[in-house]
Write a structure and sequence with these properties.
Layout: H1 2-25, H2 37-55, E1 66-69, H3 71-83, H4 114-120, E2 126-133, E3 136-145, E4 148-161, E5 164-174, E6 177-178, H5 181-194, E7 205-211, E8 214-219
Antiparallel strand pairs: 1-8, 2-3, 3-4, 4-5, 5-6, 7-8
Helix pairs in contact: 2-3, 4-5
């Protein structure tokens, strides 16, 4: 009976591992609908026009400008920025990516955990998408682990404090597998702290937040 019990336990463990691996390498539902090239160009242009409003100097009698960006505009701007590394928007880096800035490095050996992946910076990003829902910003991208595409989804509250962008994660998924935020938050916050100067708000920007499914940026 003891041997039979061990076999049953081993079979259950094997099944659990197979299910977990399947969830890890499964492609989840995209967080946002793909945009056609014409629509993406129009949204990116709209994003740039709104940025110009924030960059326009104001007199002491004028109220600070407050500009709102839709998910489609933010996604289009990020896509344009990542495809044109020579140019970048002053706010395109404020949406959560879950990826460190050394993303151009090729992936090597698979990390032992999501926490280790963030700490070691073993992330090569492609196909980044953004969706703003209520007061939550949700990002999704593909990366390679052990030569296979793995989709990472990260969501949380995006904001600012003392002139720097802040991010409080509420969801972390690898493929279809939900990872407890408590397992990755410490590594993520450490990475954000290491890149603190890159998260400094551009001159002339007072604050940013996600509200009513829009990115809201306020001028100083």
């Amino acid at each position: 009976m003891q041997i039979t019990g061990r076999r049953i336990f081993s079979a259950v463990m094997l099944l659990g591992c197979v299910v977990t691996l399947y969830q890890l390498f499964s492609k989840p539902q995209p967080v946002a609908e793909p945009q056609s090239q014409d629509v993406a160009e129009a949204n990116a242009s709209s994003f740039d026009q709104k940025i110009e409003r924030l960059e326009t100097p104001r007199t002491s009698s004028d109220a600070p400008a407050e500009v709102r960006f839709t998910s489609a505009e933010v996604s289009a701007e990020i896509a344009q920025s990542t495809s044109s590394p020579a140019t970048s928007s002053p706010v395109s880096a404020t949406v959560p990516s879950a990826a460190p800035t050394d993303a151009a490095k090729p992936a090597s050996t698979p990390p032992s955990s999501p926490d280790a992946a963030i700490s070691q910076g073993q992330v090569q990003v492609k196909g980044y998408e953004v969706k703003l829902e209520g007061d939550v910003a949700r990002g999704q991208f593909a990366t390679q682990i052990a030569g296979k595409d793995v989709y990472v989804t990260l969501a949380g509250h995006l904001g600012s404090q003392d002139g720097y962008v802040t991010f409080d994660p509420t969801e972390f998924k690898v493929g279809e597998l939900n990872i407890p935020v408590s397992l990755v938050n410490s590594a993520l916050q450490k990475k954000l702290l290491e890149q603190r100067e890159q998260l400094k708000l551009p001159q002339g920007i007072a604050s940013l937040r996600v509200e009513n499914s829009e990115l809201v940026i306020t001028q100083k």
